[in-house]
Each structure stands twice: as structure tokens, then as C-alpha cells.
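thought: fold this chain, then report.
action: predict
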Amino acid sequence: MTGFANILLPTDFSDCARPAYGLAAQIAERFSSKLFLLHVVQDLTLLMPDAVLFAASPNEALDSLIAGAKTQLEQIVRQHQLERFTLTLQVQVGSPAVEIVEYAKEINASLIVIATHGRTGLQQLLLGSVANRVVQVAPCPVLTVRSQ
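observation:
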């Protein structure tokens, strides 16, 4: 393996995601990689299809979530000094695992660096794991980073 040209760094903005930022930056620096930061806004219709019918303006709510996510991605760039990389900031709407894998294919990712929440046992069984689903179907290697 000669390196990682395109590194995808999905984030849910949780504290558990923070260690993945630094590790992705180290790898990107080592291999002169492009860095793609991605946040997936959960499609509300997938979670609560009936609730969306009664919302005053679902489009306004979604637009607000997307704008907030873009702002948070920009904050991550500043807080973790990621400006030195060739960066793409992306916000997608949908199911997180599906969107991460699809975006990885779209950008021809050579590595996905994704944080895990460190859940085990019943909690893992009930809640599932976006990282686990990504590992199972990703088109490239996936580096999972457990929170400290």
C-alpha cells in the first residue's frame, strides 16, 4: 500500500468523535492526503414518518439542521487546525451508515476514519452501531477509533 489519497472522516459531533479528528489528521499529514469531513443529518422521515406530517415546516427544520451541521464542521476545522489540508466539508441527509458508505464510493475514499461510542452488550445490541455497519460494507479500509 502506497498511501491514502482520500481520507473520509465522518462525524456525529459527539465527544466520542474527537479522537478520530487527530488520528485522521496524522494520517493525512503522513500521506499528503485530501481530507473529507462528513456529517449526516438523520432523515426525520426515517425515524418518525408520521411526526413529519404534522410539523409546521419540515423543510425549514431540515435546512436549519444542515446549516448548523456546516457551522459545526467549520468549527472542527478551526479547533483541530485542519486548514492545512486539502479539505472538503459535506453534509448529507439520510441514514448515517448508508450515506457514509455512499459518499466514500463517490469520493473514491482510500480510508475511512470513524469513531465508535464504545458500547457493548445489550446497549450495542439495541442501539446498533453506525461504525459496525460501515465496516461491514465499506468500499475501502476502515479505521475505527474508540473514545478514551
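thought: worth noting. The domain at 6-146 is CATH 3.40.50.620 (Rossmann fold).
final: C-alpha cells above.
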